[in-house]
Amino acid sequence: MPLGSLVVISALVCATSAALTRRAVPCPDGVHSATHPACCALYPIVDHIQQNLFDGGECDDEVHESLRLTFHDAIGFSLSQGPSGGGGADGSIMSFSDTELQFSANGGLDDIVKMQEQCLSECGGNGVVSPGDFIQLAGAVGVSNCPGAPRLKFLLGRPNATAPAPDKLVPAPTDSTDVIFARFADAGFNTDEVVALLASHSIASSKVLNPSMVGAPFDTTPELFDTQFFVEELLRPRGFHGTELQSGQTDSPIEGEMRIMSDSLIARDSRTSCTWQSFINNQARMADAFGQAMAKLAVLGQDTSKMIDCSEVIPQPKSLPVEHSQSVFPPGFSNADVEQACSATPFPKLSTLPGPVTPVPPVPS
User: Fold this and answer.
1) Is the pLDDT of residue 246 over 70?
2) N or C: which end of the chain has fewer CB within 10 A?
């Protein structure tokens, strides 16, 4: 190889290495460090969020709702509609809450928006972070409280929203997969990324879908970011014969558990069923895919060249407890209860938890 080519390759390697290696410097508080001075101001905000929004670092209802808020704010973005199609992850759902919280798809978000507005005011975040920054920061910090979750990225520097997002950009639980996939494609996401984002339902619970099931979790381990959601969604209903209980809700065979129509359809759609099944018993794959999809979601509509990577301020999540490191069937279920949807690969062989079949308790609000 010519010497000139070696020099070019060497220079490229050095440049790439320099780009990937970010040197941290001490912050004025003498405790933390950051790769950019602007990130230092975020540490006390993160501490305030943990103590006052998430009860000292719990994977609780406020975490679930904060993660939901990151999506509902960011998905207000349309490639086909251009500038009139919303500003994406710009905080418009908070800045123009009087408008956007009236959208039917945003039902149940009123409380978490108010809590975050108060937290932003009390933590000294005004002037440091925009509402769009705060929503994504709170979501990433909240997820870090859930064992098994990836450490989400956080970029600082979203400008204030100048207008509310248009209505009808948030997919509804009653939508068909064609409608859902088209909506996500219009925001720049492929079908694999849609499934990856649905890993958020592993720590989700219902707010408004069924008034008789407020707090009903979407799987049996809502306090853990694990793959149980992907297992349990594929269990066929027992005794209910698939009867629709309410618009957007279908029957789960596990008493007390919420199952929504769109999840059920995506889990069984030929375009997504194998990606769905690939997450079962593969925690690392699911967490990595979710982290990458969330990094993309968190900057929809933003100019990242003008933003600062402050990911180091996000706490490192705990690992899953050993007893939850593998996917399992809940008590009373087995492979015979699975509605096999992916024809390309066999369904994983999972063990069944011992014990009686008991209802899943609601997530405390």
Assistant:
1) no
2) N
In this prediction, residue 365 has a pLDDT band, given cuts at 50, 70 and 90, of confident
- 27: Cα separation from own chain's centroid: 30
Residues with Cβ within 8 Å of 257's Cβ and at least 6 positions away in sequence, in order, are: 216, 217, 218, 219, 220, 232, 360
Query: Does 36 appear as a known binding residue?
Result: no
72 is catalytic: yes
Fold of 177-283+322-352: Peroxidase; domain 2 (1.10.420)
Yes or no: say if 59 and 203 are a contact pair by the CB < 8 Å rule: yes
Say if residue 124 carries a ligand binding annotation.
no
**Extended strands (E) in the chain:** 25-26, 33-34, 155-156, 249-250, 259-260, 308-309, 328-329, 351-352
Catalytic residue among 48, 64, 72, 324: 72
35-170+294-313, CATH topology level: Peroxidase; domain 1 (1.10.520)
Chain mean position to CA 89: 13
195 neighbors 279 (Cβ within 8 angstroms)? yes
221 a known binding residue?
yes
> In the block, which residue shows the tokens 């994406």?
88
60 marked as binding residue:
no
What's the pLDDT score for residue 250?
76
* 8 Å CB contact between 94 and 54: no
Distance CA 153, CA 89 (A): 14
Q: How far apart are CA 166 and CA 78, in angstroms?
A: 9
Q: Specify the pTM.
A: 0.91
The predicted structure's pLDDT at residue 100: 98
C-alpha to C-alpha distance for 171 and 340, rounded to whole angstroms: 25
CB atoms within 10 A of CB 217: 27
Domain ranges of the chain: 35-170+294-313, 177-283+322-352
